[in-house]
Design goal:
It is a single chain. The protein is of the alpha/beta class. The protein has three domains: 34-209, 3-Layer(aba) Sandwich (Rossmann fold), CATH 3.40.50; 213-286, Helicase, Ruva Protein, domain 3; 293-396, Arc Repressor Mutant, subunit A. It has helices at residues 4-10, 34-49, 68-85, 103-114, 125-138, 151-154, 161-171, 197-205, 215-229, 237-248, 253-269, 277-286, 293-297, 301-317, 324-337, 345-357, 384-396, and strands at residues 57-61, 90-96, 142-148, 179-185, 207-209, 322-323, 361-365, 375-379. Helix 10 packs across helix 11, helix 10 (237-248) packs parallel to helix 12 (277-286) and helix 11 crosses helix 12. It starts with a helix and ends with a helix. The model has no long low-confidence stretch (mean pLDDT 88). Bound molecules: adenosine-5'-triphosphate and magnesium ion. Adenosine-5'-triphosphate (ATP) binds next to helix 3 and helix 11.
């Protein structure tokens, strides 16, 4: 009998180490982000030179896949090791606000860094925060808090962690300032109704904007990954150029790396020893960078149902936009399918604003004379039936 497992294991691959193409890998070298890393280093130097003197708040803002998370993680590692070298007890914690959706969950996550078994229930957010401060004070610790995907959070009414933490620091005027923050997001609304003017102006001065990567920048990023992840001389230069051209429209390094990975897989599947440009083109037709599992899977169930409704309407009507009324009707029938009580119109309207702020759908006001004034809903470039299937797959695995 043929051993298929051994066959597979012995099969030659153009990929030497797939890990370097995975999303878990944080490179220790980030081409074309020197300036941003330097700005952070200059800004945060005071935490090491005069610990406790001040609490810093920086914001990193920029489009998808521009290295915001990677830069923040690399920077945090560097500052922690410099601090530790000098006997300063600086710790960092990276929290994804898309996953930890409330101040309470965020504080709990911080507290558990120091008290791993702290129970989930039984305390208010303020109490948990107070405990964190006590631990930091008692042990002379400092904390660099990285709040990633903060824009998922800031829009939720009343839940404004930046504000809470800022106020807390301000109240401790004569005591050491223990917590500094880097907030990260595509676009962070700094609302005057939430922040007082002085906090707002400090925050505005400390915004670091990341631009989309250019073709050349993407090329340099990929070149380095190719060295790490692929066998020598298997990836053709033309292939990299095709990938960079495709990905440069969005300036998105994540998408470029995914295309590279898929092109490599394609070569293996076809037993090819070279990764030729055509594999990159095929990879493009297989991927929709808009459909990111982690984004959709974290959406509340009813948001997923609403998106299914929108996808169905758009599929059936073959038009670019549907009215919010049509989507809502379809949402009711989708709810029925899943035995769910539909939510009220105002709630749906809010979700639409939210989903569109996150670029998951697009919404606009209809023009004059077009069935009166209403909100029109569209989905990004993804084909409607693909989006529907994609969402159904989450719901089934729920
Ligand atoms: N300058 C760079 N050099 C090497 N790899 C990079 C660079 N910038 C980004 N990457 C890689 O591209 C991918 C996306 O980067 P990252 O996750 O930092 O993007 P992001 O700006 O946080 O995106 P999002 O807004 O979706 O969270 C990661 O795998 C990261 O390692
Ligand atoms: Mg990120």
């Amino acid at each position: 009998m043929h051993d298929f497992m051994e066959d597979e294991l012995n099969r030659p691959s153009v990929i030497k180490n797939e890990y370097y193409l995975s999303i878990d890998y944080v490179p220790d070298n980030l081409p074309h982000r020197d300036k941003e890393l330097r700005t952070l280093a200059q800004g945060f130097k005071v935490l090491i030179n005069s610990p406790g003197k001040t609490s810093l708040k920086y914001i990193i803002e920029g489009p998808v896949g521009t290295g915001k998370t990677a830069v923040a993680k690399l920077f945090a590692d560097k500052i922690i090791s410099s601090a530790n070298l000098r006997g300063i007890n600086l710790h960092q914690i990276h929290i994804n606000c898309r996953i930890n959706k409330s101040p309470y969950l965020i504080y709990l996550k911080i507290l558990r860094k120091f008290r791993p078994n702290f129970p989930r229930r039984g305390h208010s957010p303020e109490e948990v925060l107070q405990m964190i401060i006590e631990i930091l004070d008692q042990n002379d610790l400092y904390l660099l808090l990285i709040l990633d995907e903060l824009d998922y959070f800031i829009k939720q009414k009343g839940a404004d962690i930046l504000y809470d933490l800022t106020r807390l620091m301000d109240d401790r005027l004569n005591e050491p300032q223990r917590i500094s923050i880097i907030g990260i997001g595509r676009r962070i609304r700094l609302d005057e109704s939430v922040f007082d003017l002085s906090t707002l102006s400090t925050l505005q001065q400390n915004i670091i904007r990341f631009d989309k990567y250019t073709v050349q920048e993407l090329y340099d990023i990929l070149k380095y990954r190719v060295q790490l992840a692929f066998e020598e001389d298997v990836v053709m230069d033309e292939t990299l150029q095709v990938i960079c051209d495709i990905a440069s429209e969005r300036g998105d390094a994540r998408y470029a790396i995914e295309l590279l990975w898929r092109a490599g897989k394609q070569a293996d599947a076809l037993n090819s020893k070279k990764v030729i440009p055509d594999y990159a083109r095929r990879a493009k037709s297989d991927t929709h960078p808009e459909l990111r599992r982690e984004i959709f899977s974290a959406l509340p169930f009813h948001n997923q149902l609403l998106l299914i409704a929108a996808a169905r309407i758009l599929k059936e009507s073959c038009s670019a936009y549907a009215t919010i009324g049509e989507v809502e009707d379809m949402y009711h029938s989708v709810c029925e399918e899943y035995n769910e009580e539909p939510r009220a119109h105002t709630q749906i309207w809010e979700w639409v604003q939210d989903l569109s702020a996150h670029g998951i759908i697009s919404s606009k006001r209809s023009g004059q004379g077009q069935r009166g004034q209403t909100t029109l809903i569209g989905i990004s470039d993804v084909p409607a039936d693909l989006l529907e299937q994609f969402l159904l797959s989450f719901i089934e695995n729920r």
